[in-house]
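Journal club prep, notes for RB
We'll compare a predicted complex against what the paper describes. Inputs for the iron/sulfur cluster case:
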Amino acid sequence: MKNIYGVKRGMLEAYFLDINEKKFKALQVFEWLYQKKNNNVSDWSNIKKEVRLRILEDYSFEMPKIVKKEKDELTHKYLFELFDKNYIEAVVMFHDYGISVCVSSQVGCNMGCAFCESGRLKKVRNLETFEMVSQILLIEEEINKRVSSVVIMGIGEPLDNFDHVMDFINIINDAKGLQLGIRHITLSTSGLVPKIQELKKRDIQINLAVSLHAPNDEIRNRLMKVNKVYSISQLISAIKDYIEYTNRRVTIEYVMLKGINDSEENALELANLLKGMNIYVNLIPYNETNHLEFKKSDAESIRKFGEVLKKNGLNVTIRKEFGSKISAACGQLRSKEVE
Ligand code: SAH
Ligand code: SF4
């Protein structure tokens, strides 16, 4: 049975037409689910009883469960149990400009990046659309506040779960759904070139972030297996294409690993690689994990690295560290639970 939280409004319209109802019923259902946040179908007074019964026969309303929470002042982290007893996690961050949620897109991840906790646990399966939508709904319920932005940067490679992630974006962006502005939705990818090309053609105005993490193939090969399939030059040309086509600025993520990719020479090489592109670079302090061979760069190296990029004309931000105390780095809570 299809879960209602994974159904786009357009599909629901088709469903109502199919059962000889008016298509605007879909809009009413969306209002109940996402605005009034009431999934008790017997309360849906503007929908006829026989139709309500039919909906209950055709759709499931169940959601995953929050089974564990870790909190500090600015960050909450939630572990969700799925129906098949798999675990995923989502992180809420309270910023001065609003509340953002970092959602997972898969159970585990097959990309196997050397420094990443999520990649230690191989992909078990893709998340269903409703499992992504539920992360946001359950968190909004839990904190009793509206979320203002969503980043798809939790466990998993979102472009390896392309269709469900696209449906998820559609539902949360829907004017009758969760109403998240399309520019408040960020998707982060390790660099699956053909999928970046596919995403480009969709021409949706989300923010694309690409995990580059290295200025050359030698370093990137060591950190990210995906680089052996799509090299830096292929990736950069896909990003250039994407920028040109969508007219959107792309974020380049660069996790700062001590002694590995954080020298001034690395910064210069990176600046050369990215020169002239409509991007900005987000330097990410590494959140130390069980991968003991990786340490975070010290604050001074990060600052210097950023200075070199700026001197060479790039826009740079240094990511504020959120939740390092509560193992908020992607995959940490789940890997503790699974181990
Ligand atoms: N799979 C996608 C999205 C999830 S990972 C991707 O790789 O882009 C989100 C970001 O967190 C990536 O840039 C990833 O490299 C980074 N990351 C993973 N582990 C980290 C850690 N321990 N500390 C800091 N950043 C980390
Ligand atoms: Fe997967 Fe992203 Fe972690 Fe790499 S960094 S293993 S792509 S979740």
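Talking point for the session: The longest strand covers residues 87-95.
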